[in-house]
Amino acid sequence: METRSEHIPRHIDSETEETGWKPCRLIAAIVGVFLFLAPPVTGAANPESSMPKVLRVGFSSNIFTDVDTRDAQVAMELWARELARGAGINHAKVTILNSRKDLISAVRSESIDIVTIPAMEYLDIRNSLPLIPAFVAINHVGRARELILLVSRNSGNKKIRDLRGKTIDLLPEANYKPLHIWLELVLLNGGNGTPLSFFDKINIVSSASQAIMRVFFGKTDAAIVNRGAFDIALTLNPQLKKQLLVIAESRSLIGDISCIPASINPKLRHAMENAAAHLHENTTGKQMIALFHIDRVIPFDSSYISGLEELLSERDKLKGKKEKKGK
């Protein structure tokens, strides 16, 4: 256990230690490519049909949190070419969308056929952009997407208030905004103030696995990760279950969503729906499942996004109350 000075200022530090290749957030991206490029179960593409000659797949750069964007694009293009050949389509094009402006332009100019974006980004633009949420990876919904607050069982920290004046590890806000919003709400609802005033020190770490292990080795008092990442860590190291304790949890907060522009040809969408329904049954799909630790791809359901909607609604209500008090 590190000894913490009594004079450590309240601030945010950034952790940069390397933890190896982290494919978690690449899952939805590759799912998006696979869904779009995998051949329909009903048979090979008919050259005379309205299926495209070039498959145009877009990804928000905000989904590539654990890998360099350039590396991610190379991986996506390789998958696209490989799967395009399997689908009998000659060409594939992958576009990384680096800003909201890029996304809006691509959709309105009808230059992409499917796009994978963070759920927060979808909620921000859903009333202004003709995008239909279509698919999610199963590990991006349900219990795997619950946020959990972890502490060491031997620390004596049993409730959130026990963490006052202590340290916590968080993932970067730019890519994990729901995590930061949830923590803020948990503290405010308990009368504990803001994260910066409550904790002695907030460390920004690069991955969930890093945060988990730092709690395990006593380098920090607490950490917030999603349950799916914690379950994977438990599988790799069962000893963690004996040493770590969950003292708070959120509702399920959906991850990335693959969306289809409303202008897409119905035949193309039907082909994609066929591929999605049987993704886990074919050889390529099984290989992807084994590599990226997902079970299957499932159609989007509005219930999946309710947890995130409620989180944002609660945040807006608290903001409204603060603004009224400030007047």
Tell me about this structure.
With 327 residues, the chain is an alpha/beta fold. It folds into 2 domains: 26-141 and 254-305, Periplasmic binding protein-like II (D-Maltodextrin-Binding Protein, domain 2, 3-Layer(aba) Sandwich), CATH 3.40.190.10; 143-252, Periplasmic binding protein-like II (D-Maltodextrin-Binding Protein, domain 2). The protein has helices at residues 26-37, 69-87, 100-108, 119-125, 177-189, 195-198, 208-216, 227-236, 239-243, 266-277, 283-292, 306-326, and strands at residues 11-14, 54-60, 91-97, 114-118, 131-137, 146-152, 167-170, 201-204, 222-226, 244-252, 256-261, 297-299. The protein has a 6-stranded mixed sheet with strand order 1-8-7-9-6-10, sandwiched between helices. It has a 6-stranded mixed sheet with strand order 3-2-4-11-5-12. α1 (26-37) packs parallel to α2 (69-87) and α1 packs across α10 (266-277).
Give unreliable regions as ranges. Answer: 1-24, 34-48
CATH architecture of the largest domain: 3-Layer(aba) Sandwich
Structural class per helix/strand content? Answer: alpha/beta
Task: Identify the strand order in the major beta sheet.
Answer: 1-8-7-9-6-10
CATH superfamily of the largest domain: Periplasmic binding protein-like II
End-to-end CA span: 46 Å
Mean pLDDT score: 79
Question: What portion of residues is helical?
Answer: 40-55%
Number of helices: 12
Helix and strand succession? EHEHEHEHEEEHHEHEHHEEHHEH
Q: From the alpha-carbon coordinates, what is the Rg to the nearest angstrom?
A: 21 Å
**The CATH C-level class name of the largest domain:** Alpha Beta
Largest sheet: 6 strands, mixed
And the CATH topology of the largest domain? D-Maltodextrin-Binding Protein, domain 2
Strand content: 15-25%
Shape type: globular
Q: What's the count of strands?
A: 12
The tally of structural domains comes to 2
